[in-house]
Design brief:
Radius of gyration: 27 Å
Mean pLDDT: 84
Shape: elongated
Strand content: 5-15%
Number of domains: 1
Distance between the termini: 104 Å
Strand order of the largest sheet: 1-2
Length: 254
């Protein structure tokens, strides 16, 4: 009888504490699931795969994703800091290098393409027997009706909007030191920036026709284009009148 009248000791955790513990454990499980899904590449499947402009020399996309060890060596050697690493929502592309040309294009004038030399696995390859592998893409005039040259308009002052941070190396100033694009003003009657700043001579040609007030230009992309994205970055119109088609290469007209 004495034992029946003995008060019971409180059992470990209170109801509130147990509820908080369950909530905490569920939060951990959700976090692990989110990270795991991203790493396994499920997010791109759900939201649609985002094509990325890869650094020069990137091999075929599937092989590139398999070969890249996400070491970041290419990021560290890029003279204009054009190369970024994919975020968690990139799926299989988490930590994989890419270039957002509109914000900062590849300065293809860098000697020997340093990112290729820095790559330890061959994900970036400079195989001279496979010329197409050094191509990042191909420039394309996507908005001819917005092209300043086509409209017969020029550029006075900075090429891009105030506060733009993109940089290039200008041979006439110092080919070794990149400067902000907007620190190099222009005074052009007819815009030819895509040809003027292109690091590959003859890759883009702005042909002018007419005279006086009727003079205008028309940009043409040539076979030498490697898709570095400098033309897309420098284009004064917003959205740009010229863009890079990722991994496309020049094809002669039939």
């Amino acid at each position: 009888m004495a034992e029946e009248n003995t008060p019971k000791k409180p059992s470990g955790l209170s109801r509130m504490q147990r509820r908080n513990r369950r909530t905490f454990l569920r939060s951990i499980a959700v976090g692990v699931t989110v990270i795991g899904a991203s790493v396994l590449g499920f997010f791109p499947v759900l939201k649609g795969w985002t094509k990325r402009l890869r650094p020069p020399g990137a091999i075929h996309e599937d092989e590139f994703l398999a070969a890249c060890i996400k070491c970041g060596q290419c990021v560290q050697v890029c003279p204009v800091e054009a190369i970024k690493l994919g975020d968690l929502d990139e799926g299989f592309g988490v930590g994989v290098p890419f270039i957002q040309a509109r914000d900062q294009a590849c300065d293809f004038s860098c000697d020997a393409v340093q990112c290729i030399l820095a790559c330890p696995t061959g994900a970036l390859s400079h195989d001279i027997n496979k010329k197409e592998e050094v191509h990042m893409g191909l420039a394309r005039v996507s908005r001819l009706d917005a092209c300043l040259a086509q409209l017969g308009k020029g550029v006075k002052g900075a090429a891009r909007e105030q506060g733009f941070m993109g940089r290039l190396r200008y041979a006439e100033i110092d080919r070794w030191v990149p400067i902000k694009v907007n620190d190099h003003p222009y005074d052009l009657d007819i815009c030819d920036l895509c040809e003027r700043v292109c690091p590959i001579e003859g890759a883009i040609v702005v042909k002018t026709v007419g005279t006086g007030a009727d003079r205008f230009g028309y940009p043409e992309v040539m076979e030498k284009c490697v898709g570095c994205g400098v033309c897309e970055m420098i284009c004064p119109t917003d959205p740009p009148a010229i863009v890079i088609d990722i991994r496309e290469t020049w094809k002669a007209e039939a």
